[in-house]
Amino acid sequence: DQAVDHVALALPHLLHVDGDGAGRDPELGGVAHQIGGIRAPDLVLAGQAVDVGTGAADPAALDDGRPVATLALAALTRTEDDERPREVWARAGVLVNELASPALALNLPAQTDTPAGVLAAAARSRGEPLHLSLRALLRSPPRWHVAGRTVYVCENPAIVAIAADRYGVACAPLVCTDGMPAAAQRALLEQLAKADAALRYHGDFDWPGIHIGNYVIRRFGARPWRFGALDYAPHAGRTLVGEAVPADWDPDLAPKMADCRFALDEVNGWLDFIERNGSGVAIRPERMEIVRGL
Q1: Rounded CA separation 195/58 (Å)
Q2: Three-state DSSP state, 54
Q3: Checking CA distances to 104, which of 44, 124, 154, 190 falls within 20 to 30 Å?
Q4: Residues 148-184: b if buried by 16+ CB within 10 A, e if exposed
């Protein structure tokens, strides 16, 4: 893994020590060796960390604030990605809280030769939403059958519930970021992007929603889905507050939002669309692309 290799090479310089990791602080002295020992596709649990000097187990070695963790995170973090520590560790093959904040998905097609693939196939056969943990996604990465296929990405879990209730097995593949994507969501979106899925993103029409949209579109090569200036038509709602965030995909969106001064929640937009166009799978596919096979 190139990122990990770069950390192992960079840490001696960050620490101002020799290449063998010798330094003034005995705990810092072994940082380069600890990080250098992590190699994809191997996965390391944070609780399995050891003290390099003594060889004794040190489950807290990678906790926030510890010198090892602080220096490694500083070297691994990509400032443009707005990552939290758990996401940074996951990229480096270190699982921290691997069962927390699972990714929510609906109708993702996968090969059934991994635990996550079996779960995804079973849920898809019934049109039921599925939670996928970071553990399931990284320990035995599923093989997603999404090459050349549209996978829709939404911001709010309620959208997945609405889609499952309204369309069930007729719904196109759908993934939820649940706000700014956490480690499991990022792992899943990266897997789908690498499997050549055509990701289409929609979120809240507010400044945090635009910020999340910029990230998902930039980081995973997604395209906007009903998420432009022409789709923003609020007639009421909560007041739009905060500093304006330009939308990378549509230069007209932020000025229009700032002028109207209304935030449009993703869920309300969906419900309004369904009310105006009918319910169930009778919605014309050219109007509601998420319904497939009509």
Answers
A1: 37
A2: coil
A3: 44
A4: ebbbbbbbbebbbebbbebbeebbbbbbbbbbbbbbb
**For residue 207, what are its two tokens?**
């400044």
Residues in the chain: 294
Here the tokens at position 24 are 């003034």
Beta bridge partners of 175: 105, 153
Q: Could you give the angle at which helices 207-220 and 183-194 cross, rounded to 10 degrees? A: 40
Question: E strand or H helix at 94, and its extent?
Answer: strand 94-95
* 194: confidence class by pLDDT, cuts 50, 70, 90: very high
Tokens standing for residue 111: 């090969």
Contact present, 49 and 34 (Cβ < 8 Å) = yes
- Retrieve residue 271's tokens: 């419900």
Using N-to-C axis directions, what is the helix angle for 2-15 and 67-76, rounded to 10°? 120
Q: How confident is the model at residue 52 (pLDDT cuts 50, 70, 90)?
A: very low
Which pLDDT does position 233 carry in this prediction?
Answer: 81
Q: Is the pTM of this model over 0.85?
A: no
Q: How would you list the strands of the sheet with 198-201, edge to edge?
A: 129-132, 103-106, 174-176, 150-154, 198-201, 223-224
